[in-house]
């Protein structure tokens, strides 16, 4: 029995065990399997391990997407998470190559995937508050938002949660150094049903401009002299 003789339900089940590249390669073999690859029901879950994967043509975005994860675990993440004013020219050039990759992808998700239930971002140092605002506005069914080591996320995202996160039940902002204790308390007060976790976020040193950093250093020296 040839694989193409199986019914659509069986083919979708078989495809579900394959990774994105394997699905794409199999879809190239015949028109029937290509149609299965393009079936939105196959793409309810997407996991990415690098921003580069977001640019590949081996997946489909659609209203069936419920669970999305973009987790970048790499030494390069450390470069993106360095404060902008501290980066050298090489580091800035590296970051500029993919600065908008994740944000642009998430805006595409906002337009195509209104039924998203869970979003996990880890190490995505270029994701901004504006991007998170659009996600919360356009994905009203979002129940879980987990942001880890997303250094550009600030209290503005927390405020967006209180305004547009009516369905949210889980919020993680671990190692987001520009989130403050005041912002976290605001979420706890306005959204008591949200399970909030912010490991080391409000206790970390936030980004500061060179001028502000210099003022802090001078104040510190004065205290030592006293």
Number of domains: 2
What is the C-alpha radius of gyration, as a whole number of Å?
21 Å
User: By helix and strand content, what is the structural category?
Assistant: alpha/beta
CATH architecture of the largest domain: Alpha-Beta Horseshoe
Q: How many DSSP-defined strands?
A: 6
Domain F-box: 3-44
Protein name: FXL22 protein
Pfam families: F-box
Keywords: Ubl conjugation pathway
Structure description:
The chain folds into two domains: 1-42, Monooxygenase (Up-down Bundle), CATH 1.20.1280; 44-224, Alpha-Beta Horseshoe (Leucine-rich repeat, LRR (right-handed beta-alpha superhelix)). The protein has a six-stranded parallel beta sheet, covered by helices on one side. The protein is built from ten helices and six strands. It is 42% helix and 12% strand. 25% of the residues are buried. The protein starts with 7 loop residues before the first helix and ends with a helix. It has 226 residues and is α/β, with parallel strands linked by helices. The radius of gyration is 21 Å and the shape is elongated. InterPro entries: F-box-like_dom_sf, F-box_dom, F-box_LRR-repeat, Leu-rich_rpt_Cys-con_subtyp, LRR_dom_sf. Keywords: Ubl conjugation pathway. This is FXL22 protein. Residues 3-44 form the F-box domain.
Question: How would you describe this structure in keywords?
Answer:
single chain; 226 residues; alpha/beta; Monooxygenase; Leucine-rich repeat, LRR (right-handed beta-alpha superhelix); 2 domains; six-stranded parallel sheet; 6 strands
């Amino acid at each position: 029995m040839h694989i193409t003789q199986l019914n659509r339900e069986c083919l979708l089940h078989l495809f579900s065990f394959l990774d994105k590249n394997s699905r794409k390669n199999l879809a190239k073999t015949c028109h029937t399997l290509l149609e299965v690859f393009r079936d939105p029901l196959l793409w309810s879950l997407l996991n990415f391990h690098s921003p580069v994967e977001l640019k590949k043509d081996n997946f489909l975005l659609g209203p069936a997407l419920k669970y999305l994860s973009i987790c970048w675990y790499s030494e390069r993440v450390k470069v993106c998470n360095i404060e902008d004013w501290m980066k050298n020219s090489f580091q800035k050039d590296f970051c500029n190559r993919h600065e908008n990759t994740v944000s642009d992808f998430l805006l595409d998700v906002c337009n195509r995937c209104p039924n998203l239930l869970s979003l996990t971002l880890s190490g995505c140092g270029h994701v901004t508050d504006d991007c998170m605002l659009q996600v919360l506005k356009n994905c009203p069914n979002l129940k879980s938002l987990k942001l880890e080591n997303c250094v550009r996320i600030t209290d503005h995202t927390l405020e967006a949660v209180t305004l547009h996160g009516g369905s949210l039940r889980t919020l993680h902002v671990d190692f987001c150094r520009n989130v403050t204790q005041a912002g976290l308390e605001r979420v706890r007060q306005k959204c008591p049903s949200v399970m909030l976790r912010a490991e080391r976020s409000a206790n970390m040193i936030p980004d500061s401009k060179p001028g502000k950093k210099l003022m802090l250093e001078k104040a510190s020296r004065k205290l030592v002299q006293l």
